[in-house]
Design goal:
The protein has helices at residues 3-17, 22-29, 37-42, 48-58, 62-68, 78-90, 94-108. By secondary structure, it is mainly alpha-helical.
């Protein structure tokens, strides 16, 4: 994984954890203090164990996190893409979920981000 990809992984982690601190993610994953925090603060390549802990703490698919970290090859199969969308959707609050649905409807209709139904 290149440095640019490592940075993108941790940026993704920041986006997905939202208001949770790194320590809170570790607590939710029931992993030792620093397992996620140490590589995160140093912006290092996450290990398999770190990725599993992130998945447990954020309650997302482990395989998806491992693929994002470059530890498993991306296949871009239809199911993998669906799993990624579902993981993102599940991490959002209800208002953002409805907003995402509206965006998807707009894209499917070729209308960009046009609002289809109230969010």
């Amino acid at each position: 994984m290149t440095l640019e990809n490592v940075a993108a992984f941790w940026d993704w982690f920041d986006d997905l954890r939202g208001d949770l601190s790194v320590r809170q993610v570790e607590e939710r994953a029931r992993c030792p203090r620093g397992r996620i925090g140490n590589p995160y603060s140093k912006r290092k390549q996450p290990s398999y164990l770190v990725c599993e802990s992130i998945a447990d703490g954020l309650r997302v698919n482990k395989e998806w996190v491992l693929r994002l970290a470059g530890l498993l090859p991306r296949t871009n199969t239809r199911q993998e893409l669906i799993d990624e969308i579902v993981a993102i959707f599940d991490s959002m609050d209800r208002e953002d979920q409805l907003r995402l649905i509206n965006i998807a409807h707009g894209l499917a209709r070729g209308a960009g981000n046009q609002r289809i139904r109230p969010a």
